[in-house]
Design brief:
alpha+beta, Alpha-Beta Plaits, 2 domains, 4-stranded antiparallel sheet, two-stranded antiparallel ribbon, 18% helix, flat
């Protein structure tokens, strides 16, 4: 395993197998952020949001989504690396591009430490 000082690890616990797995998660050259997006709970909404993120060259490291109100609103949370972006955009520009999908209702982005 090629770990360097400052690499962050993700710990996964498997209760059934009684084991813990450590996975390299964020290296020291990364620019990690935490995203929280409230969106319409409609077919293809998450695909539109992740497509916009992919077009910017943002690397998704971890994500999870769940429905808050069926047919009305869903929440998507992700940890992403902004370092590989195709063009250097500010947080407000990233938010604006996600909002431009027309399915995002609210976008919060903050540094992930």
């Amino acid at each position: 395993m090629k770990l360097t000082s400052g690499t962050k690890l993700m710990m996964l616990v498997d209760d059934e197998k009684n084991e813990i797995k450590l996975t390299p998660f964020i290296d020291q050259n990364a620019n990690p952020v935490q995203l929280r997006v409230l969106m319409s709970d409609t077919q293809g909404a998450l695909a539109k949001i992740t497509a916009a993120i992919g077009e910017m060259g943002i690397n998704l490291l971890y994500e999870e989504a769940h429905v808050l109100r069926k047919g009305v609103q869903a929440e998507w949370q992700a940890i992403a690396d902004l370092a590989p972006m195709k063009e250097q955009l500010g947080i407000d520009q990233v938010k604006a591009r996600i909002m431009a999908t027309k399915v995002a209702q609210q976008v919060d982005i903050q540094k992930y430490d």
